[in-house]
What does this fold into?
Amino acid sequence: MELELPGRLYARDAELARLQSAFDYVAMSGNHALAVVTGTSGIGKSALLETFLQGLRQRPACCAAGKADQFRRDVPYAALAEAFQGLVLEILGQPDAAVRDWQQQVSQALGLYGQLAVNMIPALELLAGRLPPVAASAGPEAQEHFHMAMHNLVNAFARCDRPLVLLVDDLQWLDAPSLSLLEHLLASPSPLPLLLVTSSREATAEPGRQVPTGTPEPTHARLRRKAARVYEVALAELDVNAVTTLVADALRARRRDLQGLAALIHAKTLGNPFFVGQFLKTMVDDRLIVHRPDDASWHYDLEGIRRRGYTDNVADMVLQRLERLPARTRTLLGGMACLGRHSDIALLCAIYGIDARALHAVLVPAHAIDAVHQEEQRYAFFHDRVQEAAHGLLSPAERKRIYLSAGRLLARAAQADDRDEPCSTPPNCSRRWPSWWPTPARPSMSRG
Ligand SMILES: Nc1ncnc2c1ncn2[C@@H]1O[C@H](COP(=O)(O)OP(=O)(O)OP(=O)(O)O)[C@@H](O)[C@H]1O
Ligand SMILES: [Mg+2]
It folds into this structure.
């Protein structure tokens, strides 16, 4: 039996309430506000944003959510395009009468430079209709026109009785043009019912705390300066009490039967929820926590766990879990990490010159340790930390090969698209592996 981590958040009621009060302020005042969620990697920023977003479904709000990608920082506006494209697609899924209302509002609001917004958010054309072309401009003037178009778009979505909530996760990796756009929106002289919620692995001044990777401080500082009202939500580690409840729920056991184990997990992980999850899974992999079918419950070997001397560094633990995978799986994960948080199955098949069945077979061991999961036509990493670790599995030369290969394939697909040719199955798909793949060392992961 697989260990399933409970999907809910522990000990985050106050932080959620703070985000909700930021939303209430925007709804009541009609003015914009910034909510800043900070904390170290794995502390639960993305999970908090996700839970907040789910709660908003019960309230009148327009929500757009995007996430900056650390390996694609050079793609301008990627996170914001993702956010608005998602919102537009959601609107297009509404009943016809509602879509017609939106079409009217959006097409009226977009103004002279509306086409620039459509260029960034292709689905917007279905709401905005045909817009006049925008004469080419460059430099600050081009940026000003684009900011005007986006400001108008935000105006169309944001109303007092239905504020716009724009979530930007992983702000520390946001590209510079996106940051300028957010600053522009926060500096709006006219009232704008917009709640911008950002999260970042912000460095904290607290002594003894590890400074997270990335260079987040200036990014948030710039937004804070522009915002008229700022809600700070700093996430702290879970205390031993919350960790005990989490572990008890995961192992479906009583809290009082787990005190020793929970104290050890808390001491090792310092209450970082991502680390708690990885640690539990590692102990299950190592059969120090086992599920016994005879009494249908989980058992653990506390002495064995102590003797094993697990690392108290989360990055090492994630890397160690990946390093146990077969060589081909590791190579494939490394390639996927280069492509981003999600990798299109067709693109992966084309890069590696294999068919989808063979691809799935290589990824079975990665599935088994919960490093990746399939989402329709793509594979996604369980978490950014796993992607980061996977990225480190390839040498710089191997990464270069992946980027080159992906770039060529995408360019070819774009040309076919321009010519209106059907972009069929990727070329050269076979069940033979390219020569540069490692020879299979082990057929599957050993759980020893
Ligand atoms: N309060 C919590 N209770 C239980 N589980 C949690 C809690 N917060 C986060 N988690 C879980 O811990 C893992 C890490 O959380 P999350 O991805 O939100 O961290 P993060 O702060 O966004 O990290 P990063 O900066 O690396 O993106 C997720 O699997 C999440 O479901
Ligand atoms: Mg996150």
Q: What stands out?
A: The longest strand covers residues 194-200. The longest helix spans residues 396-418. Residues 9-12, 39, 41-47, 201, 246, 273-274, 277, 383-385 surround adenosine-5'-triphosphate (ligand 1) (CB under 6 Å). DSSP finds 19 helices and ten strands in the chain.
